[in-house]
Structure formats: structure tokens, C-alpha cells
Give the backbone structure.
Amino acid sequence: MTYTRAGQIVAQGGLTLSDVARARADTPGCAKVAHFNNAGASLMPRQVLDASVRHLHLEAETGGYEAAAQASVQIDAVYDSAARLLGCDRDEIALVDNATRAWDMAFYGIRFRPGDRILTSMAEYASNFIAYLQVAERTGARVEVVPDDEHGQLSVDALRAMTDERVRLVSMTHVPTNGGLVNPAVEVGRVAREAGALYLLDACQSVGQLAVDVREIGCDMLSTTGRKYLRGPRGTGLLYVRREVLDRLDPPTLDLHAATWTAADRYEIRPDARRFETWEANYAARLGLGAAIDHALGWGLPRIQARVTRLAAALREQLAEIPGVTVRDRGVRRCGITTFTLDGVPAPDIKAALAARGINVSVSRTASTRLDMDGRGLEELVRASVHYYNTEEEIAALLQAVHDCARSEPAAPSVAGAGAPAGVSRR
Ligand SMILES: *Cc1c(COP(=O)(O)O)cnc(C)c1O
């Protein structure tokens, strides 16, 4: 069985095949691996690598502070790029180390009182949920999970029915780490606004693969990371905070960059979102992030979204035809993250079998998104997250490899591991 039909489908994507060829030529990793772990960390384009490495060399040759002074215009421009990406103003952006830190600075900045309600989603990322539990213990706020609707996305009707004047925060994951689901962020924004609640969106998996506009969504705060779909370096993240909400948050930490020590017994918090940053930063990585954002804007997020969505849909359709494979993605609207299980073959074994062929996928486990996984009775999934630079040939190779894992599974279970190809064992 071959999978040449994917070729017809990908040609209709938002980027032309010559765009894709250009993107791949600019991505050194494309010559080495078929990378379907873009929800973990994407392959960086040459432009990102160059921006980071150039600055590291400058630091080594002239001194770190001197290098920052020389590159100050470019460093400052990263805020403009981030603001363009998200559809906000530059003073509403904070650049931080990762999405978790970005999210934390917003969430831990909310002054919860006993009885305040936090409404959240089934798809919530573990780090967020752990923070809810800690803050509930500390403050007496209550965490409540809005159920999914019949499509597996957060139920907007249920959310509306749950809102009252005690709802302090609606906090939702836009795209979960473990599936193609895209939660209805705009509709949720409308309900949060009507309820007078703050709205925090974890957009870690959506920014870079989907067109995300904070004004359209109506969120007060949004966090995302550099290394995933944005194709930036590791150790970068960003936070958007709507200007009108800044003073309703209490920055959980302050330093001499976030505030000024104005008198022996006084300080003044800076007026913009950079009050959520610290003074020290990895400028080489930050410049890489800026280059990654500019690169994405250069292609155009709607075009990236069209191609990623179409490629993933084609992948899902063909995965579902492989005997024993169940595609696990939910939601009315789906993105580039594609997840599946294969009867009788543990997800880590599939990952290993694919890795042996130079194909990168990852495994999602319960502890990352417990409510959702427990709710579906799942312990692990194979996650193949597609980006615009992936090709129909790579998808065909991925499908062939999964097909071979499936075929090597005997009809009647025998002795564990017997007859399995290299890297594939059975429970
Ligand atoms: C990866 C991820 C995070 C955390 O991002 P970091 O940059 O690793 O801090 C948060 N939320 C979701 C949904 C994620 O997938």
C-alpha cells in the first residue's frame, strides 16, 4: 500500500510547492530528518540560527553588555514583531524564558479571594492545573472544569450556564499538547467578557501554526512559547497583557527592570507589560525569536494555517485506513497536531520504530493532560505534529512506517516481542 494521494491534497495548501521547497532549503534539519515533532520543538530556519549565532559571536568578541548596546535596535524590534504577530501594541508584550513563565506571571498576578471561581477546560496542560490547585489551596478560590461538548471541545453553552459574578477567571488552553483540537477561543472570549471575568488563554500550541489575534479573541492575557510552532530557539516565550488589565494584576515578582527604586522606602512599577520581565535575558535567543516571528509573518499566518491544517487532515484520513489505528483528535476545528493509537503496540515502540527510519514523532502521556486522558480512558498517544515545511513524501514515509508496525502485529497475541521488527515490542 502506498500513499501517493497525499500529493494531490497538499498541493492545494496555503503555500505553493515552490514556497515549501524554499522553506525546506532554508531549514538545515530538513535534510536530516522527517520532523513531525513540531508541537515539541520545530526545526529552526537558517534565519533564526544566524540571528542567534551572530549575536553570540558578537558577545564573545566585544562583551555581552557592549553587544546588547550595538544590537539595541534589533533587540527592541522584537517587541514590534511580537505585537504584529498577535495583533496588539508593543507595550502589551513581555518577553520571557518560556510559555510557562509567561502564563505564571499572569496567573499568579491575579489577586484571588476566597470563593472566587476559576473556570477552566478539560484540555488543560498539567502545569496550569497544578498552579490552579496551589492557588486554590493558598487563597480559597475554587477551580471548576467546564465540560466538553459532544465534539470534544469546551462547551460554550456549559460555560455560559456556569458563569456568575463570582467567576474571577476563565482560563483555557487553545490547542492542547495532546491533540488536534482547537478550542473555541473567540466564543469563550465573548462569554468571559459578558461575565466580567478575566480571560487567560494558553496559546502555546496555536501561535505559529494558526492565525491568532488577541483583539479578535478578546483575551486579557495570552502566553506562548518560541520553540514550538513558531520555530524559534528554546528558552524563549512571550506574554501579552491587555493594557487596561495591567493594573488589575499584581506582578508576582519585581526587580530593577520591572520597577524603579525611587526612594529608600519606595518603588514604582513600570507602566508597560515589561513589568513581567526580569532584567537579565538571553539576547541571542531573543533575537532568534524575533527572526522566527518575522519568518512566520513573511509567509503569512493564514497561509501557514491553511497548509498545516490541510496536511494534518490528509494524514488523519490515511492513518485511519491503517488496520488497528485509531485517530484520537477531537473538536469541530482541528489543527496540525495529529494523534493516534495502534492496537497492541505501545506508543513508545511506534516512536522508536519511526525514529529508526529518521522520522520524529513524540508520545503524549496522561500526566500532561490528565483530565482529558482520564476522561477518554487513554494512557498514551503517538503525536505526529505537522508543520508547513513537511512534505507529502514525508507523510507517505510516516504512513508506511506505521503501516509496517501494524502489519507486524499478529492476529492472535503470541509471546511478548515475538516477531516484532526492530524497536517494536508488545505489552
Ligand atoms: C508546551 C506547552 C506549555 C509549556 O510551554 P513551555 O514553553 O515549555 O513552558 C504550556 N501549554 C501547552 C498547551 C503546551 O503544549
The pocket of pyridoxal-5'-phosphate is lined by residues 98-100, 125, 173, 176-177, 202, 204-205, 225, 237 (CB under 6 Å).
